[in-house]
Description:
- The complex is a heterotetramer, with one copy of chain A, one copy of chain B and two copies of chain C.
- By secondary structure, chain A is α/β, with parallel strands linked by helices.
- Chain A is 23% helix and 26% strand.
- Chain A has five helices and eleven strands.
- Chain A has a nine-stranded mixed beta sheet, with helices on both faces. Chain A has a two-stranded antiparallel ribbon with strand order 5-8.
- Chain A is globular and about 40 Å long.
- Among the domains of chain B are: 194-371, PurM-like C-terminal domain (Phosphoribosyl-aminoimidazole Synthetase, Chain A, domain 2); 400-428 and 564-730, Phosphoribosyl-aminoimidazole Synthetase, Chain A, domain 2 (Alpha-Beta Complex).
- The termini of chain B are far apart.
- Chain C is an alpha+beta fold.
- Chain C is built from two helices and three strands.
- Chain C has a three-stranded antiparallel beta sheet.
- Chain C starts with a strand and ends in a 6-residue tail after the last strand.
- The C-D interface holds C 6-8, 11, 18, 21-22, 24-25, 28, 30-48, 51, 54-55, 58-60, 67, 69, 77-79 and D 6-8, 11, 21-22, 24-25, 28, 30-48, 51, 54-55, 58-60, 67, 69, 77-79.
- The structure holds adenosine-5'-diphosphate (ADP) and magnesium ion.
- Magnesium ion binds at residues 74, 115, 118, 268, 270 of chain B.
Amino acid sequence: MKTGILRFPGSCDEVDAQLAAQLVGEAVLLWHGDRDLQDVDAVIVPGGFSYGDYLRAGAIARFSPVMESVIEFARDGGLVLGICNGFQVLCEAGLLPGALLPNANRRFTFRQVELEVVEADTAFTSACPAGELLSIPAKHGSGRYYADEATLDQLEESGQVVVRYRPDQNFNGSLREIAGVRNTDGNVFGLMPHPEHAVDALTGSTDGLRIFESMRAAVEGAHV
Amino acid sequence: MSEQLPALKDALALGLTEAEYELVCEKQGSPPNQVELAMYSLLWSEHCAYKHSKKLLMTLPTEGPAVVMGPGENAGAVDVGDGLICAFKVESHNHPSAVEPFQGAATGVGGILRDIFAIGARPIAVLDSLRFGDIEASERSRYLLEHAVAGIGHYGNSIGVPTVGGEVYFEAAYEKNCLVNAMALGLGPREQLMRSAAAGVGNVVLIYGASTGRDGIGGASVLASAELGDADDDKRPTVQVGDPFEEKKLMECSLELLELGLIVSLQDLGAAGLTSSACEMASKGEVGIDIDVRKVPLREADMEPFEIMVSESQERMLCVIEPKDVDAVRAICDKWEVSSAAIGEVTDTRLMRIYSDAELVGEMPVEALVDDCPIYDLQPQKPSEPLYDAPPQRLDPSASLSDSLLALVGSPNISSRRPLFEQYDPIVQSRTVRRPEQADAAVLALPNGSALAVSIDGNGRRVAADPYQGTLGVVLECASNLACVGAQPLGTTNNLNFGNPEKPHVAWQLSEAVRAIADACTALEAPIVGGNVSLYNEGASGPIFPTPVIGMVGLMPDVSRAGRLGFVEEGETIALVGPFSPSLDASELSKLRGEPLPDGLPEVDIEAVRAVQLVVRDAVREGLVDSAHDIAEGGIAVALTECALAASLGAAVTLDGQGDVWQALFGEASGGFIVCGHATAIAQLSERTELIVIGKVGGDELRIEVGDEVIELALSDLRTSHRSLEALFQ
Amino acid sequence: MRARVLVRPKQGILDPQGVAVERALPALGFEGVSDVRIGRLVELEIDDPAQLEAISSSLLANPLVEDFEIELLEDAPSA
Amino acid sequence: MRARVLVRPKQGILDPQGVAVERALPALGFEGVSDVRIGRLVELEIDDPAQLEAISSSLLANPLVEDFEIELLEDAPSA
Ligand SMILES: Nc1ncnc2c1ncn2[C@@H]1O[C@H](COP(=O)(O)OP(=O)(O)O)[C@@H](O)[C@H]1O
Ligand SMILES: [Mg+2]
């Protein structure tokens, strides 16, 4: 599998995502100004502060040339994972439902959180049993997931809520404890916590690796 | 511009003395004009010229086997093996933070990061060292704390450099002068190491990064030709606003330029802006530089030449490049959306010549600007009267041992810093093996399986009680922190935060502290590779506590053996290691009890402490012990609490009942460590060093028996106390 | 032409900053303040004000969670 | 009474957000926009509008880096 990780001015966790993706295949960085996705099998929109998070997290990055290609790639069924700022960019770009608002605690917050895998039958979580708790760090200032009630109901019904915070760990105030959602086709997934920072026991947990392993399984399954 | 030359009164308003002004006139051969006076006044300021500290700094040990770059460049650097260097430095942003804590702290982080990438290293970590007034009593101090922490987080998080450690103390002596020091570390290939000396007559001087505005032109606005009326006030903002997004691009752009070998010399623009960076580049390279201020990209079009030269706008760099590389350099800047402009040329004149288009608006010998500022001798004198008031009493001296432990664990200087550090991203860059509260030092993995460890420390109260012994304690504590994770010090940086050095008692504090740093760093073989000095931190109520802040970087061969402070397993043996003779002098307990500072502290045996550090270091490296934690504020009882809370594992401990139980439990001193491990391992360790087995890990309470007395506290109660700072951040 | 875009959190969406301000006021001695909402103020110089609607809905505000209001100002505002 | 406080970065003070937005606009196909300044919009219900000046300078704006302007609105704004 070859993964492409976007690099915007202000991206911070793109190299971390690259290191994580390299554990399951090849991984290259894709410059925001280029439209060529270099034939990757999957795209990661990484964490950080693209364009300083000025105005609104993700608001400016979603207009970059590379995002035009990513939108097309996603429409064609390509796997797209948005992590933290990447999740915000994907929501701003309309590839995922909802929006991420400033944390309810009004502060950038770093915390190791436990995520419940709500949907294990997705291209991003197939390596996890449903109900499993993944210990993964979260770190952000705008991670409060919001969508209107009708949308939330519909997301839950259609299995689009993929991961949730344990209720006592939902520091950002996300509605219905939502930590990550996918699109209706299931090929685009965004979450606020950082699976790429949970791929090595030395620096934390290895629970995040499952996300990358699931993506590899999805890509390789599709190839056979 | 105004034709009228500034006069002596302007020089005085800019902080020069009459004698210094006369010396400037002599060096210039005539009274300086507006631009010249502005530049002299900055370069001859305490901040740039180290007028009152230079002689002391010369006494510091700066050489050692690992040192690749000592003091004198933007940051120091040590060799960490495999062709890599670690650059590091600590710097203060005290005054700006007292005025506007969010921006002051944020730009402090921005400034220290530029120093790191200016020498060709990629910033890999930030640490902060903070001092505020009594937060229990002072609304202002709570405000400063909250905003300074937010500012540090804002900058470090947004730029993608992890903040991996730090320290904060609250003491009334900092009420009017808070301290905000930030330290940064960087990693880079040794052959990419960059110096700031300008070279190559005919080479191009290029500025890149943010545009130049009126930021930080505080004092110098007295030079404005127009009378400053109320209406003009907002034309002269002094608050510098940080833009981490701009700096992120600046950093990536700089590192790419260095990697491509396009840069001859590089320097950040920090305090004193273009003036200091250009003059220092010229001075170090023994050349001259011509600058045309009209070529500098401006944020406000109507800036005068002197304003452009002294502006402290953030996120700017100055480099010297070969004329043939100008297009290539500018193309890289464009790629990163960083603006750039060729503004001058390296000359062989040894003059700084400032032009405004074709007009020469300032001409000064580089040597006069940079080297000829008078250096002053200190007049140290130990004060005959106590300098500091006794703190308010917060704990009844007749409180029980258990209540006293709870009070200590919940006191602002000891309680958990989690509400602060969880506003910082400690893990970006995927290198952080130990983050705050996991170990005494932060641990950062290196590519070859080894690791760096870093710690920052500075207990001002103990230094106030005894500048020499107190400072020894600070340096030793830093090294002890490194030992606890298994690291050996490679080098040290320091920030000397003191009051007015022209006062004999402050001069005494300063000289004693520097003497201690020199002695301790020599003994530890941890030479000083850089640092910073922040003087005049005082107001009508007196000086701050003398606060030498020490940052130390060490190396351990095997990252997988990095030590931790929390207990590990039920049933393990707990031992007290080291030549530990606790005393309540200047301790946290005596502070809570409202006792005044003593005059002097017990003597520290540096060699004995160093010896036990080596034993602990090796025991951690070998995996002989499972945890190690040095005893610091609050004594052994607090250290045990921290080991227990970090692991959510209780302990039952018996301490020697001879002597004063208060001293045994809460006394402080250098050289004590709590280690835990299997009984056989502890027995093995006892063959290497003085050690007392004091108890076992287990249960959900902390029980400490001492003589006839017992402390018995549920971990949950200790934890509640330990979280007391959370209330400030609701 | 100088223009101003006022961006506000939509009704019904929690505004933690607004809540914090509202909570802080009584402690500072200010009573009788309620319903505090904090949004963004964007001021700009624009050649073609007809573009403002598109700029606002695509960039300055996120219509899912924010409302916006455009004001055209003849003169420069009293800075 | 409904009131509105416009909080802006002071003249001469760097406005990183404004700069970033201004730079981004041409890439989105919007030309001819300049001098973008981004501030805060605070709207509130207040019994005694005479307090607004004090509230603004002590809490809503940081007078070191921001200016503010108070507008009293008779009716509720078109939310
Ligand atoms: N306390 C100190 N100990 C050792 N070196 C110091 C100390 N204070 C300043 N220096 C050195 O003096 C030089 C100038 O420092 P500074 O003016 O802070 O530089 P910059 O403007 O690059 O931050 C640096 O190389 C710094 O390391
Ligand atoms: Mg420097």
